[in-house]
């Protein structure tokens, strides 16, 4: 693995980690954009395993988005435009011609590619990947998510009520049909028990940046039709065991993008990407390597 630090035009910096052949050409490089509340370190098993699955002449590039890992904090004017600019910077630096996004990272890459195409600028359209795939993309399509909880979530984070904030997010996003119905105080008490685990500690550390990225990705509903401009080489993926919201979002996007493909990974869950679930690795590897 090779690590490098890239300077951004707005004065920030992004940490980039490359797995596999450092000299791989662009058509054999995949840029991976991770989800909310997770650092590049958590995706290391996935990036390493995917690189091995693809072969010795491939590279998997992964970076810490703003506010996590070795990258700088989100700027004061942070928005989805910040994320799009960062994706553009990473594509230009690595030369990667393949793009993969997980969860909120899926929202980032889809918005980025749509922005490149909508710009009409040949320099921007030149960044459109040869192949684009997302798994369980987190987008508020056609007001499919009630975001009323975001305000209280932000207030809880500001006040340091981390367990209560996580409970609000769990209920608001409906990740689990069971937990989303548990009364807020009871769910907060249950989540408080995870505060000493590695995952629990990380989630709490990421809460401040989580406020910004959830607002950027979810607060403004987006019509599914606005993504119809995405290229036909777009591959929408979901886990068969992921929350219905993720599967429904991926299916709706597939329906509006002509020529796109859709696949559900059997037994796949929302967290299958970071843990390098083999069946999902095979599905991703098959898509990026098939003729």
Summarize the structure.
This protein has 291 residues and is α/β, with parallel strands linked by helices. It contains eleven helices and eight strands. α1 packs across α11, α5 packs antiparallel against α6 and α5 runs antiparallel to α9.
Q: Would you mind describing this structure in some detail?
A:
About 40% of the residues lie in helices and about 15% in strands. With about 290 residues, the protein is an alpha/beta fold. The longest helix is centred in the middle third of the chain and has 16 residues, at about 105-120. The protein is globular, with a radius of gyration of 18 Å.
CATH topology of the largest domain: Rossmann fold
CATH architectural grouping of the largest domain: 3-Layer(aba) Sandwich
What is the CA-CA span between the terminal residues?
Answer: 27 Å
Number of helices: 11
Given as residue ranges, the uncertain stretches (5+ residues, pLDDT < 50) are none
Strand content: 15-25%
Shape: globular
Overall mean confidence score, pLDDT:
93
CATH superfamily of the largest domain: Alpha/Beta hydrolase fold, catalytic domain
Order of helices and strands: EEEHEHEHHEHHHHHEHEH
Q: Would you count the extended β strands for me?
A: 8
Q: What is the number of domains?
A: 2
- Quickly give the structural class: alpha/beta
**What gyration radius follows from the Cα positions, in whole Å?**
18 Å
Multimeric state: single chain
Break the fold down into its secondary structure elements and pairings.
Elements: E1 2-7, E2 13-20, E3 29-33, H1 44-54, E4 59-63, H2 80-94, E5 98-102, H3 104-119, H4 122-125, E6 131-135, H5 149-158, H6 162-173, H7 184-192, H8 198-205, H9 207-218, E7 234-239, H10 244-256, E8 261-265, H11 278-289
Parallel strand pairs: 3-4, 3-5, 5-6, 6-7, 7-8
Antiparallel strand pairs: 1-2, 2-4
